Amino acid sequence: MKLLSIILVAVLMQQCSFSQTANNKNSTMDTTHKKNEVYSRESKEKVNLSDSEWKKILPSDVYYIAREKGTERPWTSKYEESKEVGTYYCAVCGNPLFKSDTKFESGCGWPSFYEPISKTSIIYTPDHTHGMERTEVQCGRCKSHLGHVFEDGPPPTGLRYCINGVVLDFEKAKDAEKKYNEKGGQ
Ligand SMILES: [Zn+2]
What we know:
The chain is of the alpha+beta class. The chain has helices at 2-28, 32-35, 51-57, 60-66, 175-182, and strands spanning 86-90, 96-99, 103-104, 112-113, 122-127, 134-139, 145-150, 160-163, 168-172.
């Protein structure tokens, strides 16, 4: 009798783990962020993962730019010419980076902004690679490579944040917020 119940438990456990694997398979076919547990648009907590951990989580094009400091080909981002009203987030961790009203047409081939959402949303690092003196911009929450900032932007800042569209996520402003802005905040 005892043996029988042990066998029964063993069989049940096997079934259980089998259905779990099946579920996992489904979830990996879902959107990229479901795999990415650190992705959050609310959390301010810093994210510190190793490159091998990121490699498991991120799609290969995002990994190449965010962690290997790659650059997407110019004129390839759907955000390059976009004029939609909303917020741009880090595609790696969900950190809010830029508002669409600071986006401008730079003609350089990458989405360009003149100002980040806040001082802490971006980290600045000197970059001496490729025989150039540039300032690299990284996400303030997960330190992913985003692009570079140059001093030939429009007023009021005079800065041009040249950002790879692959590492950006965009969310349209909600209708209510849009109306609020149209009425000038009344
Ligand atoms: Zn990030």
